[in-house]
Amino acid sequence: MSKQEQEQEKDAIYIGMDLGTSRTAIAASNGVRESLPSLVGYPKDVVSMKLLKRDSLFGDDVVRHRLSLNVFRPLEHGVIKGSGENKRGIPEDEADANMTAARQLVKHAIAMARPPADALVYCVIGAPAEASNTNRKALLEAAREVIDSVMLCSEPFAVAYGLDVLTDALVIDIGAGTTDLCRMHGTLPQTEDQVTIDQAGDAIDELLEELIRKNHAEVQFSRQMAMEAKEKFATVREGAGPIHVTWPVDGKPTKIDISKEIREACLSIVPHIVGALQKLVSSFDPEFQATLRGNVLLGGGGSQIRGLSDAITDYMEEHLGGGKVKQVDEVVYAGANGALKISKDMPPEFWEQLS
Amino acid sequence: MSRSLARNIYHLMRGAARRTTVDELRKQGRRTVSVLNFRDVQDLIEQAVENTLKRRGLKLDGRGIHEEVRLEFLALMRERDMLRKTVEDLLHERERLAENRERLDRALTATTSEYRSAQKSEVVEEADELAALAAEVEAALRDTLADTPAETTEEAVELVNEAFARQRAVTLERAQTAHEANLHRLERRMSRLKSKLSETEEMLARAQSEPELAAIPGQPVAAGLDSADPAFETKTELLSEIFKLNVELREMLEKN
Description:
The complex is a heterodimer. Chain A is of the alpha/beta class. Chain A has helices at 3-11, 46-52, 60-64, 92-112, 133-144, 155-162, 201-215, 223-233, 259-267, 269-282, 289-293, 308-320, 334-345, 348-354; strands at 12-19, 23-28, 33-37, 40-43, 57-58, 69-72, 75-76, 79-80, 120-127, 149-154, 167-174, 179-185, 194-197, 244-249, 252-257, 296-299, 325-327. Among the domains of chain A are: 3-162 and 333-353, Nucleotidyltransferase, domain 5, CATH 3.30.420; 201-267, Nucleotidyltransferase, domain 5, CATH 3.30.420. Chain A is 42% helix and 24% strand. In chain A, helix 6 (155-162) crosses helix 13 (334-345), helix 7 (201-215) runs antiparallel to helix 9 and helix 10 (269-282) crosses helix 12. By secondary structure, chain B is mainly alpha-helical. Helix content of chain B is 76%, strand content 0%. Chain B is built from seven helices and no strands. Chain B has helices at 3-16, 22-27, 38-55, 67-120, 125-144, 150-208, 232-255. The A-B interface holds A 5, 8-12, 14, 29-31, 33, 133, 136-137, 140-141, 151-153, 161, 164, 166-167, 186-188, 329-330, 332-333, 342, 344-348, 350-351, 353-354 and B 57, 59, 214, 218, 220-226, 231, 234-235, 237-239, 241-243, 245-247, 249-250, 252-253, 256.
């Protein structure tokens, strides 16, 4: 190892980041692992600022003080809201505000890794499999200010790399904004090896809200309340028992059973996932299709739905003639762990060239 | 849960609890009270800790954290701190050696240069001055003794010249001795510096090749893929491709 490389090692900290629509997770070479909701909040007025004693808040603090804050969830479908093709009629000032919020979120996440003041920060960020180059550039721009050298890589690929599963496997990464599927066959996945679908956590929340409004029209609740109930009770298991929440009806706290709605909403993503999975399996070498089907890894925050891996296996059995789905360990950190592994394995001279 | 921790919690609970008598409770109309065994509280705390650790992704078996694990952990932490201290000392020593080498190197260069100029310098300078002075004195003497017989003048001039010649010889000899002593001193200094420099370089090389330095927990990680990795070739290829894609992306970003 050259003297230069030794110097570089001495002063560098490696970070893997899963910058998700719902949660951001980091894993760093100094052993720090943290995650937070991908939320940024700014005090609404001077009174809030005096009360909160900060210019900006992040993660759980935003949820806690959301009534006093202008809240930004800067990522949508895994990329920065309003960037590139993701504009979808978002006004320019709102797109700028999202970019600023994303930048601050990245900065906050890096600070959570507690890097030494004079250390070089080398970071690999997982991006959705099908993020466009414009979206990737926006992510890169958001990160460059606070990171000495940054690389992007496909999020499901990072999960697979972290698990050392580089061949004959299929990774499903269920996030909030998107579900990414990626076929691993010993090379860097190309466009045809990856599929991104919108059926993910947010879609479940939306459907859950719709179902509860339809079946319990008298109940007063918000999307946030529905989301919290889903995060706590999400299941696709039949006969899992009643799921009670106490929500107001005409202002009076009332206990209602939402087990049917939760199950239906959570199950709604299964056919879409298996459809995307079929697309990747059927376009693969016929000789290895069975191996691929039998080695499906399920990760991402959305995979914490109870019984989901079994439900996907059953659906595959019914529609694809069999398959085996296994949930990865540490679903929240699987992407960040993989990204960290990539950043550490990356030759030092590569980092230097990009800094 | 360790005994000391359990004892502390027990005392804290005792301290925070309100004491009352059975008669007092009877007066309040209470006929039964709920009783919670301290062992149950301990179980609840252990369960809560275990659940929190599980939620945070730290896998533990059903037995929870035992005293032995805690002691083992503390021992490992102590060992790690000692190792870290050793590494810090070694790194400090390495820096000190590098500084020393530079200082010795600079001193050797300066001494060598001084030695070379000393070698070139003439020792006859002072003697030459004496010769010039002798010529001046002779001229002045001849001028002063212009009216005296030539024979007397020549004798006087000869006497003065002889005196100057003797003094010049003494001066020359003294200068030569001093010059040689100076060269000898510089040679000894150069030799001493060379020996110290070589010793320092050897120590520095040893310190720099210390393999344990990279393996201390909490120390900077070894960058780059381990060549012993079973998928070394595949991973190297994948990493190169990720790098290339990022270079292309960066170029696109810079173009815009």
